[in-house]
Amino acid sequence: MSSLTTNVFKERFLDAFKEDETLNTVCQEIALEIQSGHVKLYDIVETLGPLITDTDIEVREKGICAISTILSHLPNDYLNENELSFIVSFYCNRLKGHYSIIPKVLTGILATVQMTHLSKDSPERLLRTFFDNVYCQNQLTPVRYTIYLIFITLLEKRIEDLKAMGPDFIYVVISSIDGEKDPKNLMLLFSILPRFMKEFKLGHLAEDMFEVISCYFPVDYNPSGTEGITRDDLAEKLASCLCAVPEFAEYCMPIILDKLNSSVKVAKLDSLNLLCKGVYTFGVNGLKEHLTELCSWLRKEIMSGEDLEVKNASLKALAAIIEVISSDTELCESSIDYIIKDVKPCLYDAQLNLFKPSVKLLECIATVNKETCVQGLQIIMPLCLGQYSTKTSMTDKIIYIETLNTFIKIAADHGFNIKNVPELAWTDIPQLYLNDLLTPNEELQSKILSGLTLQKKYLNEVHRSSLYNQIYSLIESNSNELRTLCHTSLLNFAMLYPCEIITLIKEKYQLNDGEETKVQIRKLEVLAAVAKTHRLGREVLPQIVSQTNSDNFEISCTALSCLHKLVATKHIDYDAQHYLYERCNIIEKLSALNISPTDQRLDLILNIFRLIVRNFTFEKQQRIANRYVPILSGQASEVDAVFTINLLIPLRKDIDLAINNNLFENLYNLAVNSVHSNVRLITCKFVAVILNKMNIISEYFEHMLLYFNDRIKDNLGSDSDIDVKKATASLKVWITKAIITKGFHDVEMFLDELTDILRHDQVGQYVGTEYKILTSRHEDTLVAENFCNIAIFYKQRVFEHLIRKKSEFENSSKQNYLTALVELLEEVPIELLLMHLSKLVSLLIESLSLDNEQLIFSALVTLNSLLETEHVIFADKIQCFIPRFLTLSTYRTMRVRIAALNCLTNYCNYPVTLINTYKDDVLGKLAITIDDRKRLVRKAAVRARTRWFLIGAPGGIKEQ
Questions:
Q1: Is the pLDDT score of 959 beyond 60?
Q2: How far, in Å, CA of 679 to CA of 203, rounded?
Q3: What confidence score (pLDDT) does residue 956 get?
Q4: 331 vs 337: CA distance, rounded Å
Q5: For the chain, first and last CA: distance in Å?
Q6: Nearest to 830 by CA among 782, 865, 873
Q7: Are 641 and 632 in contact (CB under 8 A)?
Q8: Average pLDDT, stretch 796-814?
Q9: For residue range 269-310, what is the model confidence (pLDDT) as tens digits?
Q10: How confident is the model at residue 55 (pLDDT cuts 50, 70, 90)?
């Protein structure tokens, strides 16, 4: 490089040194120049030479910073081995320099070790120089983080080179991390140390390594909230370090045993978690020496411990221990015998306090594997069977049956029959269950039936035949739970023995017109239950479909309910929707039913249609459209129209609906002029679905929007009947929702038009109550499942638009605006509400002052949720809220009184110094409310008054 060029670069650096941002920009530019070949890295380092050796420490630091920054902006594969060797030598020399330049040197080393062509000896050179000249824990927290990143980068990219250093590298790591306290740095270390300890043979340094990390156990850390790191995060990562290698067993197990006896709950939980992780690494050899002491402590905690969380963690740890030692059969059996040696006496009486813990202990042992399960069964089964047979108390019998069922399931999960255990060959559990299945106690019957279903693989033909007969009797029960269990049981047996259940259906569950309605309904429910398997579905679905046309309304309704449940079930082994459509001709048959728009069965049929068509292929959906759209374009009855609409709602976006003007006209008339509210609503939803799915470049999209908007505008401005105007306003709401969810560019215009209707003197209030439709979470039509477009954040857009309109409403229209806003708040995420809280609070206060019961109630519900955030604005406005809540606690309707009392209760979470001023007034007012004529109001009042009474009291709500 010429002296002129050198001077130019030097001047650039000197200018850049004045400001960090400028220096970074200049370094990026120079890195690009190096990549383009205009300048060499050697030349840049040479240019910076006088600056790097300057007597001014700050100038030297800037010079090092410049080189490190340039390196960080170069591609990892750009520099060759010679260039990198030069850089390594450069940084090794700098590590010997003044302590203030070390952070910038380390930044450069981090960039260097990421380079692809780094020589094999470079990591060792860097680390040895670092260890000789820099003490990690003397550095600031961010600098230590950089050091750890250097270690991690070398571990990931240069592990073989590090291994060549032998124990020296291990010693460097131990010395560097010893004494680290920063949680962020510890999280980084704990994430990489397990791999480090597994890759490097620790040898004589194993104890030193363990001591360096074990000093953090158990983790004692109270997060400030800024790091984003919790105590549990650190504890989980630390546990993985403490049990990373088998050599740690001799150091780790004594610590675990010591902390298990701690009086601090978190220490016990951390120790149990560490034990669960560690046993798999330490193995039998690592556990054997401490096994008796561990088993003794765990048994004591499981049997007599009072803390449920610790007991559950102990059970988990015991299962892990048994799983590991099960590889040594003799040791495993002797350990289990030791654990359960005192359990038997506790199982003789189900009412003993130690009965449930004893069962839990045996259950824990049994779940590990088949061998331990057999060992547990040999204890529990004879005792439970004997006690069940001799007990007369139904409560006791139920407890013992539940216990038996637990172990029957565990044995079934392990794939064996209890009777196949030689020591238990004498048992006949299925027969015992069958003998008591018809016991006149529904709870016991339910438990027995569940147990028999668990044994489905192991019941012989005689047992199964007896069970089928008894289920037939139980089906007549008035208990919904018991009948549901019967259905579940038959379905389980149908999966294993389909031929038997087909025969059973033909013999006992054939539908006969002469039977009582109740009997036929019970049979229909059974048919629907077993129809979830392919073999049975083909047999029974035609029968269920035929009953939809029954003259008996209850039977017809039951058949439709059964079909609806079936097509809504996701996890069955065949395509029930396809079978019903192709083989049972269900759409034509249901469409032919003679029902009116007010018939209770209509909703069931419409939902069945949607669920069936939704799962069709594109081609099949197009055939549906071709066949049924002409019905809507012609002169169809209202029932036929809504049938057709619900076949078309779930069609894919690209299906051609052959839209025409007659279709627009007919849909408009149905939506506005039908006398049936459900017909109007369904039609409005369908119009919204069409607009939502239609391509905006389609010739019909603008045409359809213009047509409906013009008709709506004319209707609202005419002298039409008020009900017609309300229906028209509803149609406008649904069209607006279609546009919003679609993400159309003219959303604001449509929202403006809808918001303007709030000023309408006849339907403004009605639109206010309907406004929540725009964001309702209970939507079932404009949803992704029906292939609709759902724009992200559309709810936020609606809310923010309405908030901006605050100043445009005065006088009579203000109440309509507030109604719309408050109704909308229930659907808006709390985070968004908090962003606009200052505007919202004044509006909510105003809402509480108006004489509109629905508005007041909705405002109180929203306020109750917002008060839970303990936002400072509610402290500032307390003088506005407390008096209003007290007044509303005696409001005329019960739900408002309860909501106001809940808000008063929530205010007790605010600082005592703030709310203590209002304590006497609140207690005085609530003394009247606790005598309210409604029980639920009295309950809410007592809760509120108790909380307020405790404000400032010893042991009560503390000053914050």
A1: no
A2: 81
A3: 55
A4: 10
A5: 69
A6: 865
A7: yes
A8: 90
A9: 999 999 999 999 999 999 999 999 999 999 999 999 889 999
A10: confident
Tell me how crowded residue 954 is: count the other CB atoms within 10 A of its CB: 6
DSSP for residue 306:
-
Q: pLDDT tens across 817-849, in order?
A: 999 999 899 888 888 888 899 999 999 999 999
CB 406 within 8 A of CB 359: yes
In this model, does residue 405 exceed pLDDT 50? Answer: yes
Strands (DSSP E) along 853-919, which ranges? Answer: none
Length of the chain in terms of residues written: 960
Question: DSSP labels for 654-716?
Answer: T------HHHHHHHHHHHHH-S-HHHHHHHHHHHHHHHHHS-TTSHHHHHHHHHHHHHHHHHH
CA 24 from centroid of its chain's CA atoms: 43
904: its two tokens: 């008063």
**Among residues 115, 217, 125, which one has the least CA distance to residue 172?**
125
- Neighbouring CB atoms inside 10 A of 616's CB total 18
Cα separation, 68 vs 110, whole angstroms: 9
Please give the angle made by the CA atoms of 192, 195 and 196, to the nearest 5 degrees: 80
Whole-angstrom distance, CA of residue 545 vs CA of residue 605: 12
Q: What is the pTM of this model?
A: 0.81
> Is the separation of the CB atoms in 364 and 356 below 8 Å?
no
Among 80, 6, 18, smallest CA distance to 44 is for: 6
Closest by Cα among 222, 152, 148, 218 to 185: 148
Cα–Cα distance between 751 and 206 in angstroms, integer?
70
The rounded mean pLDDT for the chain is 92
Which sign does the torsion angle of CA 601, 606, 609, 615 carry?
negative
Confidence of residue 429 (pLDDT cuts 50, 70, 90): very high
Q: Tell me the per-residue pLDDT of 219-235, one tens digit each, with 9 for 90 and over.
A: 988 877 666 788 999 99
Q: Which segments of 99-190 are extended strands (E)? A: none
Residue 951 per-residue DSSP state: B
Indicate the pLDDT class of residue 1, thresholds 50, 70 and 90. Answer: very low
